[in-house]
Amino acid sequence: MGVSRRNFLKGSAIVAGAAGVAALNGKPAQAEYEAAELRIKGLQHTTTICPYCAVGCGLVVHVKNGKVVNIEGDAEHPINNGSLCAKGAALIQVVNNDLRLTKVQYRAPKSDKWEEKSWDWAIERIARLMKESRDNNFVKQETIKGKTYTVNRNEGMAMIGAAALDNEECYLLGKFARAMGVGYLEHQARI
Ligand code: SF4
Q1: Fewer Cβ neighbours under 10 Å: the N or C end of the chain?
Q2: Domain boundaries, the chain
Q3: What's the topology of domain 42-100?
Q4: Which residues contact 48 (CB under 8 A, 6 or more apart)?
Q5: Is 35 left (phi over 0), alpha (psi -120 to 50) or beta?
């Protein structure tokens, strides 16, 4: 059905008038509040930390039927008091994104192709290469000015943590790195 310019303007005036009446009733703020509440009403929610940067803003994640449907700043979090930067505000696109990689992609040395691999394959390969690197680069002792010290240092490996890691994960990763003899241990938030 076609809409003439006159009818369109008439319709717009009626809608604007109705909105004005609603505003005059003194309820727009309440309506906005209720609309925001309705959006997440009855949904399961959990709190987490933004994985992007070292600011570590708090988030609330809402889930419906096992699917993440909303992510917003956590108003009770002391770091961000509910606010998020543009990147954090767009976090839902990380979860619900057809382009997100969910399988291991491997490109062999000198190959120009990616191959899909299993997680078991990846973890076994990482563990084997770490063991080889440690065996080949482990320094047990070092002599400085004629005195020999036990150093147990792995010079073939470095480790770096990132803002996605929480305190407990950093603690475990730090312990693991030191057990491997890694001296080059850093965190993205510090560099
Ligand atoms: S919301 Fe922005 S500022 Fe906050 S942790 Fe994420 S990326 Fe950093």
Answers
A1: N
A2: 1-41, 42-100, 104-187
A3: Phosphorylase Kinase; domain 1 (3.30.200)
A4: 58, 59, 61
A5: alpha
Instruction: Please give all residues whose beta carbon lies within 6 A of any atom in ligand 1, as ranges.
Output: 50, 52-53, 55-57, 80, 84-85, 87-88
Give pLDDT tens digits for 60-119: 999 999 999 999 999 999 999 999 999 999 999 999 999 989 999 999 999 999 999 999
Distance 58 CA to ligand 1 centre (A): 9
Residue appearing with tokens 């969910």: 102
* Å from CA of 87 to ligand 1 middle: 7
Distance 85 CA to ligand 1 centre (A): 6
Q: Is 16 left (phi over 0), alpha (psi -120 to 50) or beta?
A: alpha
Atom of ligand 1 nearest to the CA of 80: 4
What spacing in Å lies between the alpha carbon of 76 and ligand 1's midpoint?
Answer: 16
